Amino acid sequence: MASRAQGSTSPTPFQVMIDVGGHRLVADEPHALGGTDAGPSPFGLVLAGLVACTGTTLRMYAEHKGWAPVEIRVELALDLRGERPLIDRKVVVVGALDEPALSRLRDIVERTPVTLALKSGFDIATELGATA
Length: 132
Fold this sequence. Notes:
Elements: E1 5-9, E2 16-20, E3 23-27, H1 42-64, E4 71-79, E5 86-94, H2 99-109, H3 113-120
Antiparallel strand pairs: 1-2, 2-3, 4-5
Helix pairs in contact: 1-2
């Protein structure tokens, strides 16, 4: 599965107009960092991706197993103060699941695609050019 995104800065300081598969987003920095807070910060977008992947993966797994309808609530907090960034993730499953099902979801949540990618890191190949 290949994902693609592109973006360009706007005349407004620190705003970036982003296109992800035809979905338009705006990223910005908060007022405290000189932005206009018109959209999530870059790290906010990373957290949003993890929230989406966590909720989607767990919901898909529960439906695949035929478990009673569940709602997945995900809350993340990013702490950049330590030697390595820490994402604190809290997941709540709303629905009638027994302990074996919850135990299985605890295993699955650690192996969602975005979780694994963030834990292992990415290789980034960069090409920077200029045009007049």
